[in-house]
Amino acid sequence: MTLTIAILLLLAVGDVTAQQLPTAIPQTKFVSGQNVVPYFEGWIRNTDGTFDLVFGYFNRNWQEELAIPTGPDNMLEPGAPDRGQPTYFLPRRQGWVFRVRVPGNFGSQVLTWTIRANGKTEKAYGELLPVEEITERIVMTRGNLNPGDSDSNKPPTISIAAAQTAVIGQPLSLTANVTDDGLPKPRVPVQRTVATDATRIQAQANSSAVARPRGLSVSWMQLRGPARVTFEPAGPNLVAGGNAVTAARFTEPGMYVLRATANDGALSTKSDVTVTVQ
Questions:
Q1: pTM
Q2: Where are the alpha helices (DSSP H) in the chain?
Q3: Within 13 Å and on the Cβ side, how many CA atoms surround 220?
Q4: Nearest Cα to 97, choosing from 107, 87, 82, 108?
Q5: Chain segment 244-277, per-residue pLDDT in tens
Q6: Dihedral (CA of 244, 245, 249, 255) sign
């Protein structure tokens, strides 16, 4: 009788083990075929009494980049469907991408951004809810914590030539003129060493990935255009002598809008440039 009960208990435990759910479900990464989700990041109060509604987006694809011209599949309403929103969507989350200025009497109205991609429709609703008020400093830090307006660090300034023309297949040189107050001082990188004595505390590095440039840098991204633009170098480019030079290459003719972002390690400033590709 005791042996029978033991066998039954073992069978019951084995059945529970077989049905036990995993403690963590791995994230599914979609290369393509997913939708683009517009985001309302918040609103900014301007000194003249107007307001800026700030939007970003989340392209749920890990690789697919989508060109969605303004119109039924990419529009803001009420009003004109083209309000300066991006028409080229890079993979993953892109925050604080563009803003729409509304008058001081906007009140309880709602500005809706609609995006249709890969057969799915998503909307973001911009409205002046008190809990969604943000500041320029929040945009400059991409939502990171900062000491506030009393911080002695000032954002960098950046300027790009107002208009550019390019030819398919030929690199276009883009020069960003950048100035900064030198704050914050770039951190000294931690030297990675191989542990030789297990009894002593070793310096720890938080990541094994390629380190980002330390100091004032410029990064480029694409906001508009019918096809993908490639940048060389692709990532942050350190500023030397007040300038950062990047080459852009185009594969199709049309009108493109490119954005340069100067970052001093804490605060960032953006400047857009329109390029006509023949």
A1: 0.81
A2: 2-19, 136-140
A3: 28
A4: 87
A5: 999 999 999 999 999 999 999 999 999 999 999 9
A6: positive
